[in-house]
Design goal:
17 strands, nine-stranded antiparallel β-sheet, eight-stranded mixed β-sheet, Nuclear Transport Factor 2, Chain: A, alpha+beta, globular, single chain
Length: 306
């Protein structure tokens, strides 16, 4: 099944799980010292990572960002080398934690992810793991994504997994890729208030038109939603994504034989897996099924339910 996507879905480079924020490419990070940090930030960090060493602070995109080593168990063990990062707002709210994971931790603590990786086409094709990170947002231990960077010669990819083992994002990486950045608190609050059973997979900001896109995953169903917001953090649109098999089953359950025949005529494709499909949801949670006709125009077919 070919699903039309917006900029969020599996470019899905998000996030952050679970993971990017507004990024001013012309802004140079400002080195900070503990003496210059707001007390609420230094206190939050000390409480969250009491075993941190070699701590370095910078101010970036209006966040206070600490890079550090972990010498003992603290949320998760990590390799030394300032490979861990945590982002705080000036008010001391944690926006993003990025912790380095060892291969032993991946296999032992996130075995579902490790198992999915071992079954993937990339493992079969002899890609090698270059780096593993745990991305956590909003200081919620359930809202985590495991990012695995893989390579084979000059080929590089980033794979994002829910801790359940579901692959939620697969993108080609390049030297131009931006780092994982925190989702603004306004959008995190919106997700928590409206989708308490979902995790944030990725966040992206479009600097040109001032819009934001948040990708979330419902871990119980493996359904993903891509939410677009304007610069005032007002919801613009929602698109729903699911795997091909589930989407075909949804079509069979929601459409009559005559309706399916009409779509075949509309698209010129008898094979459902060749349809270009979008599932759009409005602010009232009404979901509409769209399909691309033979001329390349998206057509609103009918209202459906999940």
């Amino acid at each position: 099944m070919k699903k039309k996507t917006n900029l969020l879905i599996l470019l899905l480079g998000v996030a952050t799980i679970f993971m990017s924020a507004c990024n001013n490419k012309n802004e140079s990070p400002k080195i900070e010292s503990n003496n210059n940090l707001p007390e609420v930030v230094s206190s939050a960090f000390a409480k969250q990572f009491p075993n941190a060493t070699n701590v370095k602070w910078i101010e970036k995109n209006n966040y206070h960002v600490a890079s550090f080593d972990l010498t003992a168990k603290s949320r998760t063990e990590a390799k030394p080398g300032n490979l861990n990062e945590v982002w705080y707002t000036p008010q001391g709210s944690c926006g993003l934690i990025e912790l380095e994971l060892s291969m032993a931790e991946l296999e032992q603590d996130f075995n579902a992810v490790f198992t999915t990786w071992k079954k993937s086409i990339y493992f079969t094709e002899a890609y090698q793991i270059d780096d593993v990170d745990l991305l956590q947002r909003d200081n919620n231990s359930n809202d985590t994504v495991v990012k695995i960077e893989i390579e084979k010669g000059e080929l590089e990819r980033e794979l994002y997994f829910a801790t359940s083992g579901v692959l939620v994002k697969d993108v080609v990486s390049s030297d131009d890729d931006e780092e994982n950045l925190p989702c603004p608190q306004q959008l995190t609050d919106y997700i928590n208030n409206h989708y308490s059973d979902a995790i944030i997979v990725d966040f992206e900001a479009d600097d040109e038109d001032g819009t934001y896109e948040v990708e979330i995953l419902f871990t119980q169903t493996d359904i993903e939603k891509e939410l677009a917001f304007n610069k005032k953090y007002e919801l613009i649109s929602i698109e729903i994504d699911m795997n091909d098999d589930d989407l075909i089953e949804l079509i069979k359950s929601q459409f009559t034989a005559d309706e399916i025949a009409e779509i075949v005529t509309l698209t010129g494709e008898a094979d459902m897996s060749e349809w270009e499909v979008e599932l759009r949801e409005d602010s009232q949670e009404v979901i509409t099924f769209w399909v691309e006709d033979a001329k390349g125009v998206m057509i609103n077919v009918k209202v459906i339910t999940l």
